[in-house]
């Protein structure tokens, strides 16, 4: 048995903002993927994954909901026969490792599942998001459901608000100098503590005002520019966003990256922003000249996401 591949995802824009109902843009990231497999011989990694699937099975079996029903007998039988999730997606890196797992379980075991081949109306997207939110809460305590949705559909998704999602197209890549890239912090991040810090900060009126007025508006402008291919305007807005994040989200940025974050803003060679909840994992970067940025940041591991 080998299940279909489900890819990683990158939330290009909208981290934290989507918690407060502003816009977001998520895209699939095909460099990493995962699939359900079976094996009679366990390694340490596959054994741990198999145990994790059993815990997930127990969680799904305990759900009291009419939103979704699973073929739990088959799921349990497959686990007993050595099923595991074979994944290259790094965990704790903000690229949706649990999302791909959730998508693969829904795909294989959900009754009356919504498929990618259907006409994906807003209602269907919202229903899927609700199902995935319920499922992924097992991993994060609270989940928006967006990571599994992106992984399952493998298409860019524009989040206009909590109740308004749409599949979208992004400009095709060009062989230009510019790029969106990932910078590896080499630190595993945890979502829950970062979200707790954010929710505590939201109790402060000044912080709330900054989110509503500066952060959300800047994020919306970045999304608009990116979708319409307005690269000149995009870089101005991404620079502003990079400054806002550095000034207001310092706990989410690992200490040793504060200096290179600031250097990017001052030199205009590149701009950094959070990828997911922060605290480690990947940092997202934007540059007009990827080769130059690779030289400047030669001490760090960079991965290309998108060229323009």
Automatic annotation (TrEMBL):
UniProt keyword annotations, A-Z: Kinase, Transferase
Q: Name one GO molecular function term.
A: ATP binding
Q: Which InterPro entries match?
A: GHMP_kinase_C_sf, HddA/FKP, Ribosomal_Su5_D2-typ_SF, Ribsml_uS5_D2-typ_fold_subgr
Q: What is this protein called?
A: Mevalonate kinase
Species of provenance: Gramella jeungdoensis
């Amino acid at each position: 048995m080998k299940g279909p591949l489900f890819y990683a995802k990158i939330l290009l824009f909208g981290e934290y903002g989507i918690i407060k109902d502003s816009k977001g843009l998520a895209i699939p990231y095909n460099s990493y993927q995962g699939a359900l497999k079976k094996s009679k011989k366990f390694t340490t990694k596959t054994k741990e994954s198999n145990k994790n699937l059993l815990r997930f099975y127990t969680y799904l079996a305990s759900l009291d909901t009419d939103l979704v029903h699973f073929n739990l007998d088959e799921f349990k039988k497959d686990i007993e026969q050595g099923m595991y999730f074979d994944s290259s997606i790094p965990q704790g890196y903000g690229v949706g490792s649990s999302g791909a797992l959730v998508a693969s379980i829904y795909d294989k075991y959900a009754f009356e599942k919504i498929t990618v081949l259907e006409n994906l109306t807003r209602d269907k997207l919202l229903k899927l998001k609700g199902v995935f939110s319920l499922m992924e809460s097992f991993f994060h305590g609270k989940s928006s459901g967006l990571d599994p949705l992106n992984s399952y559909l493998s298409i860019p998704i524009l989040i206009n608000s909590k109740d308004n999602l749409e599949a979208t197209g992004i400009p095709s890549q060009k062989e230009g100098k510019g790029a969106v890239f990932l910078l590896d912090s080499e630190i595993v991040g945890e979502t829950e503590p970062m979200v707790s810090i954010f929710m505590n900060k939201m109790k402060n009126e000044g912080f709330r005002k900054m989110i509503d007025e500066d952060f959300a508006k800047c994020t919306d402008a970045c999304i608009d520019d990116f979708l319409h291919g307005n690269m000149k305007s995009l870089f101005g807005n991404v620079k502003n966003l990079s400054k806002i994040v550095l000034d207001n989200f310092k706990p989410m940025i690992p200490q040793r990256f504060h200096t290179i974050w600031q250097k990017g803003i001052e030199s205009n060679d590149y701009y950094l922003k959070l990828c997911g909840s922060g605290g480690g994992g990947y940092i997202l970067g934007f540059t007009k000249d990827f080769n130059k940025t690779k030289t400047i940041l030669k001490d760090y591991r960079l991965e290309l996401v998108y060229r323009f």
